[in-house]
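Exam revision sheet. Question 4 asks you to relate a sequence to its structure. Input first:
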Amino acid sequence: MLHTAPISAATNRLWLPRTALSSCMRGVMSRNTVGIELTDAQRFNYFPASPLCVINWWFQGSSELLPSGAPTRLDSSIPRTPLSGVMFSGPQTQPCVSWCPGPVHGMMLIFMPDALHQLTGIDVTQTVNRFIDVRGLFPTPWVDLCNAVAAAADDDQRVTLIQDFLEPQWNAARPKQPMQAHRVQDWAHALALRAATSGAGRSLRQVERRIKQWAGQPLRELRGMGRAETAFFEGVAAAEQGQRPNWAAVAESSGYADQSHLCRETRRVTGFAPQELYWRIAQDEGFWSYRLWA
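Answer key, structure tokens:
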């Protein structure tokens, strides 16, 4: 296993949303490695499977998306999909890995999928596991926002532009029932409740169809990702207290049948068993996005 020790945390930043936007967007992440020497191994980026939607900006440099399940090594025989400019990524049912061929400065605006559907009318089910140019997907005002963000002077100004644009739109479009968005598990429960009490049809089949339309994935998948996120934060809490996570206890408190169930689902969502995942979060530069949330 390669040791690719994390570089300065100053290269990565996380902005949490204003209170008025907390049920709409999850946050904004940025990464800037311009002027920093990285090895090839440190240029990998690891992301878990997620129900969330993302607008991705590359202000400088680019990324290359590896095929799902491909080994994370530099091999010219493994095809990689180039990503640059401004692109939208829908919910991901499998973990993703990308590689940056050089220095990169980028930003990710992370949405709750039902909020994005409420704001734009985008059919999230058609975006699952896809990266799409924003110009062919979003309404003109959103494309104009993306261009303004790309042209802004710095990342703080970019985040202000984003939230100033979203706040009045969300105030006008938000559903009457509150949407809990701070944790995926809470959000999935709230989404199920809203689906069950919305519209004329309230049968189980109609509720499930409504959830998939809003979130792009069935409720079972959303709850599975919610359990995985809960387990992640349980493990982080233990680590912050200087303790090695007790995975059997984490499994029980996170809603898993047993420790084996936790291990299987953690592998499905992240690609790694729980203990290896925590080792990599601590030691591997490519897990910078996990460290931001931790």
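Marking note for examiners. The radius of gyration is 19 Å.
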